[in-house]
């Protein structure tokens, strides 16, 4: 039996987009699912991740499993329609099918909603026995303990800055109104036993470890146990936390001792009112500069994420945000536009106000505006974010932020120049480019997926 696992990508993140190799780390979803295919089936498996590779239109498979986020949904549907027309069975899973199951079902033989650890092996047996169901719903009554190692060997060898991605804790209990993650998967927390995580890290033959978990400190107790156990491994690690880390000197100290070199923090906005608008009260804007100093003093650099488009914001927000970022010396700023993913509280609010004008999912890549902002126009918002990217990644401003260079320049400089390239090409990704799936043939009985 041949199984192909596909991860289609949006235009910016595709192998030929503006998101370079230095910014790509190996994804875990498809390697984890591949590891769950029962060994006794002796399946021939391939992974095609479109962020680093093309998806061949002549691929040979009996079964295709595709992971789908909202921004890639249209492209996933185009691939699904095409491969199904070739007689291949196609299943869709991931965030978007979990948010929009009925829509996804129109393009797939079956869908998997929620996390798929338990339903996936059953689905494989159902496929083999010709008893496939239409929908595999994963409830939250499962565990991520005792899972086999992800099949990293199936990934393209040189496409990523690191293949050493490892999961420790899954889930987030915060109520941010824009976030698709709890909307798709709920707010329950799942923790892998620390000894399993450590065992997996010990198999890595290079120094850097990346935790892609959406909130590594979702359980403080667990984070203390995990990172204390990591100290003897002498690794360097990167991960995602909230700005609440700034209030926790004990945990920062453990992070430093365990080799933490970089944290991604969703600062979202320089306005406290905007934090209320998106229900992210954990962010205390007044403390950002102090937080940055504290993390820098502990040798930790920060990727700081900001989202424009809140109702409180006027046209001055772009310049003010860049100023704050340079002043606070945020090592790797990243900008997005607030995006109302389906089934989120933000979507419901904006939809009820009749403000969502764009319904092509390809534009839901968090870099394009899909709703009418309150105090500025759509054009001002898109021009403002383009300006902010370019201004922030001017060479002079990169070095103002990184000065005096003491925080892991081996990491911060390549990443900054990776984002400089991204910023340079940013405005090339117009709606026409974002929504173009004309490289995927359209089956006779279907219309071009738009
Ligand atoms: S803290 Fe992050 S992961 Fe958690 S709900 Fe908010 S945006 Fe989503």
Roughly how much helix do the residues carry, as a percent range?
25-40%
Q: What's the CATH topology label of the largest domain?
A: TIM Barrel
| Mean pLDDT across all amino acids | 94
Rg measurement, Å: 22 Å
**CATH homologous superfamily of the largest domain, by name?**
Aldolase class I
Count of folded domains: 2
Number of helices: 17
CATH class of the largest domain: Alpha Beta
Oligomer: single chain
Strand content: 5-15%
Compute the separation of the termini in Å. Answer: 33 Å
Could you give a short account of the major beta sheet?
6 strands, parallel
SS content category: alpha/beta
Shape: globular
CATH architecture of the largest domain: Alpha-Beta Barrel
Question: What's the order of the H and E elements?
Answer: EHEEHEHHEHEEHEHEHEHEHHEHEHHHHH
Question: Describe it for me?
Answer:
With 450 residues, the chain is α/β, with parallel strands linked by helices. It is built from 17 helices and 13 strands. The strands form three sheets. Strands 2-1-3-4-5-6 form a six-stranded parallel beta sheet, sandwiched between helices. The protein has a five-stranded parallel beta sheet with strand order 9-10-11-12-13. Helix 1 links the parallel strand 1 and strand 2. Helix 8 packs parallel to helix 9. Bound molecules: iron/sulfur cluster.
TL;DR?
This protein has 450 residues and is α/β, with parallel strands linked by helices. Helices cover 34% and strands 14% of the residues.
Task: Furnish the topology, listing elements before pairings.
Blueprint: E1 2-7, H1 29-35, E2 44-49, E3 63-67, H2 73-85, E4 89-93, H3 95-99, H4 101-105, E5 110-113, H5 119-128, E6 135-137, E7 169-170, H6 180-185, E8 190-191, H7 194-202, E9 208-210, H8 220-230, E10 236-241, H9 249-257, E11 260-268, H10 272-277, H11 288-297, E12 301-308, H12 317-328, E13 332-337, H13 345-352, H14 378-392, H15 395-402, H16 409-425, H17 431-434
Parallel strand pairs: 1-2, 1-3, 3-4, 4-5, 5-6, 9-10, 10-11, 11-12, 12-13
Antiparallel strand pairs: 7-8
Helix pairs in contact: 7-8, 8-9, 12-14
